[in-house]
Structures are given as C-alpha cells and as structure tokens.
C-alpha cells in the first residue's frame, strides 16, 4: 500500500495489485479505510482499462456466424451463387439508388424541353428513385395507348369522384411515348458505361471455387460483365445464356444466368431477334472507341432498331420482357437444384418479389437446402428467417446463415473453407 500511496506505481499496476489483494485476502480480515480513498482515485483508470479491453475484444469478433466455418462440401454438393448489386460495388458500379442523378445528367446533355420539365418536376417532388420513374413511364406509355385504361386508372385512384373523360382528351400520347422511349434509351446508355469496369475479388473468388467445384451455377441480377469476364479469362465457358445457339459444348462450362439482361445482349424492336455479343471483344472495341452507335444500333437481319436487352429497375419487370422467360426459368431451376444457395450483395428488395418467392418455395420443397447470406446489412439474415418461418412450417432457423462483412473480403475466405477437404470428399476421389 505504501508504494501505491507514494504514487510510484503506474495506475494499471495499482489496479492489478488491488484486484489480486482483494481476491487473496482472508474473508475475515478487516480492510483499512485508506483503500476506499485509493479506489476512488484509481476508479477512472479501471473504467478506461475495462472499456479498452472490451473494445479490442469486440473489434476482433468476426461478423460471420460460426456455423459457416463448419460447412464442408463434397463433389455431389450443388452450389448456386446469386449475385446482386452489392457484388459489383467494389468494381465501381453504382447501385440503383445512385442511378437517377446520373440519368438526369445525361438528359441535360440531350437538352430536350420535355425531359427538362420532367427532371425539374421530379426534383420538386423529391423523386429520387429510378425504379419509380421508369415504372411510371412504362405504365403511362402503356395506358396512353388505350384510353379505357386511363379512365379506369382515374376511377381506381379517385373512386370515380372526378370525371376523368375531360382530362383523357388532353393526353398527348406521342409525348408520353417519347418520354418513355428516351428514358429507356438513356438507361441503356447509362448502363453501357459499365462495360469499362472489371471483376473484383468477389468474382475472382467464385472463379477459384469453380475451378475446384464444377457442380456450381451462378445467377446474377447485374447487367455488368464482371462475372462473365472473370470466368472467360479463366478459360471457363458460359452456358444457358440468351443466345444458346452460339454456345460451345466444352467440358469447362458454367451456367451463368443473367436475370436482368446484360450489357452485351441486344434485341431488335422490329423482328425481335435476340443477339449476344462477345463480351471481351465488345470491351476491347469500346475501350478503343472503334464503333459508332448506328453500326451497333441497327439489326442486321431486318434493318430495325436494336436495343440493349436490359431490364430496367421496374416494379413489374417480369411481365414486360418476354425474351427473358427462358432465362428466368433457368434461374428458378438453379435455385431449386441447389444444396447451398450463396447470396452475395443481394438485398431482397420488394421490386424483386419474384426472386424471393422462388427462393422461399424452393426452401419449402427441399428441407436440406441451406442459404448463406453475404451482405453488409446485419439484419438481412434475420429478416429472411422471419419471412420464411411465416411461410414454411417448422422452419429450421439454422438453414440461413449470415456473414456481414464486405463480400470482396469475406467471400474468398468462406469459399476456401467450404472447399477444405472433408472425409467424404476424400472418399469420393478414391
Ligand atoms: Zn430485326
């Protein structure tokens, strides 16, 4: 105690000694009141020390549910990846919520009165979601061509209180058509700029995984070519794409299903022919600026207008794109077949209710199917557990596991753990 009182002892040591002393002293020994003074003096250090230690311990906690590290697969395990916008963010691709401001920038360059008015109005109304804008444009364009639908919309919105027939006669069908068409074209141009971006460690980790485990398929809702590029550059071919006639029947082919289209896909507005361009070649000519728009924009078949086959973020996108029905069926098949569904950076937004439904259905059909959620949102896995529990009887919560770190950091680690040789894998190889 003397050493403590003379102040020769550093605070950490005082606290240490005090703690040891309190623990070791016989229970019947009476303590000097001076200890109270000492404790009051050193208490702040104690709080600081404990919070520092706790802070360090908390920081070292991995945001990965421990059962994930225990997963081992054998050659018969079917794995399906579902990639969402979050998987492309490390490649520098903006997510949907950043797209509208980019779209208005492009619209300003065109400088059309109708577009300026629309952009000003959206700003005033604080409409910042590209999905709302494109959905409204599609509905309006569709409705404007059939005045009964406009009248009925008026009835549904205003319960027949107002007489919409006066207003209907004022509708300028061509102007609505122009706006819808321009927004679609701008959206196409906007996403075309994604062609200059490349794969990030998330895509590379998936390719490394596939090299070891061919029983894998990939679904993506991204238009960009990051996943395709990573696979093609590793010598892995793609199957079940939009243009399956051009596919090679190599041994090293992987099913890559691009549910919302792709920057290298196009369809003709007139003859409806669908084309898939060689992604790596397209990237090269884009970077060297070798082709003018009309060359790519005209259908060789019929001379009609060729459009990028991209599904804009629309609330009812699955009704609008008949070209993609086979693609969506193929995605459903990959989801149903999977033993492990690894969901990377996909947010399960309300606009993609179709995808959530097929996943929920497949989880109900196959009670051994498990999901691994890789997302920075720590609430996503628990949200899904709740959602599926409501739909699936006696749903085992452990079928959904979460890792809440950024995908480019955590996915490579998780996948290499899954591939670590398990006993069954060894047996199968023999
Ligand atoms: Zn054509």
Notable features of this structure?
Rossmann fold; 430 residues; disordered C terminus; three-stranded antiparallel sheet; alpha/beta
3D structure, described in words:
- The protein folds into 3 domains: 2-59, no CATH class; 66-93 and 198-260 and 321-418, Rossmann fold (3-Layer(aba) Sandwich); 96-178 and 189-195, no CATH class.
- It is α/β, with parallel strands linked by helices.
- The protein contains 21 helices and 10 strands.
- It is elongated.
- It has a 7-stranded parallel beta sheet with strand order 3-4-2-1-8-9-10, with helices on both faces. Strands 6-5-7 form a 3-stranded antiparallel beta sheet, with helices on one face.
- Bound molecules: zinc ion.
- Residues 268, 270-271, 273, 299, 301-302, 304 line the site of zinc ion.
């Amino acid at each position: 105690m003397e050493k403590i009182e003379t102040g020769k002892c550093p605070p950490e040591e005082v606290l240490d000694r005090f703690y040891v002393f309190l623990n070791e002293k016989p229970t019947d020994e009476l303590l000097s009141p001076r200890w109270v003074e000492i404790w009051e003096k050193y208490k702040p250090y104690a709080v600081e020390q404990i919070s520092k230690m706790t802070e360090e311990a908390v920081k070292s906690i991995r945001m990965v549910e421990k059962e994930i590290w225990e997963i081992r697969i054998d050659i018969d395990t079917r794995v399906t990846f579902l990639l969402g916008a979050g998987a492309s963010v490390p490649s520098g691709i903006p997510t949907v919520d950043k797209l509208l401001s980019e779209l208005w920038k492009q619209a300003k360059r065109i400088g059309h009165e109708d577009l300026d008015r629309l952009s000003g109005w959206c700003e005033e109304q604080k409409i910042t979601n590209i999905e709302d804008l494109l959905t409204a444009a599609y509905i309006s364009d569709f409705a404007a061509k059939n005045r009964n639908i406009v009248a009925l919309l008026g009835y549904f919105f205003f319960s027949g209180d107002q007489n919409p027939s006066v207003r209907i006669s004022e509708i300028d069908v061509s102007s609505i058509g122009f706006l819808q068409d321009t927004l679609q074209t701008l959206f196409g141009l906007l996403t075309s700029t994604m062609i200059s971006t490349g794969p990030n460690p998330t895509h590379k980790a998936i390719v490394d995984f596939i090299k070891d485990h061919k029983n894998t398929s990939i679904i993506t809702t991204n238009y960009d070519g990051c996943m395709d590029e990573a696979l093609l550059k590793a010598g892995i071919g793609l199957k079940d794409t939009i243009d399956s006639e051009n596919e090679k029947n190599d041994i090293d082919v992987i099913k890559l299903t691009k549910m919302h289209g792709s920057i290298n896909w196009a369809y003709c507005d007139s003859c409806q022919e669908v084309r898939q361009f060689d992604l790596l070649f397209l990237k090269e000519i884009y970077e060297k600026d070798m082709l003018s728009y009309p060359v790519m924009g005209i259908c060789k078949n019929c001379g009609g207008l060729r459009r990028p086959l991209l599904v804009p973020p629309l609330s009812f996108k699955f009704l609008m794109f008949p070209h993609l029905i086979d693609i969506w069926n193929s995605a459903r098949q990959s989801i149903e077949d999977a033993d492990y569904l690894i969901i990377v950076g996909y947010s399960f937004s309300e606009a993609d209710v179709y995808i959530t439904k097929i996943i929920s259905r497949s989880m109900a059909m196959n009670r051994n199917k498990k999901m691994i959620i890789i997302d920075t949102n720590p609430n996503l896995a628990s949200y899904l557990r709740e959602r599926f529990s409501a739909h699936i009887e006696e749903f085992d919560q452990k079928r959904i596991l979460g890792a809440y770190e950024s995908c480019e950091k955590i996915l490579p680690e998780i996948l290499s753990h899954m591939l670590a040789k398990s006993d069954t894998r060894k047996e199968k190889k023999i």
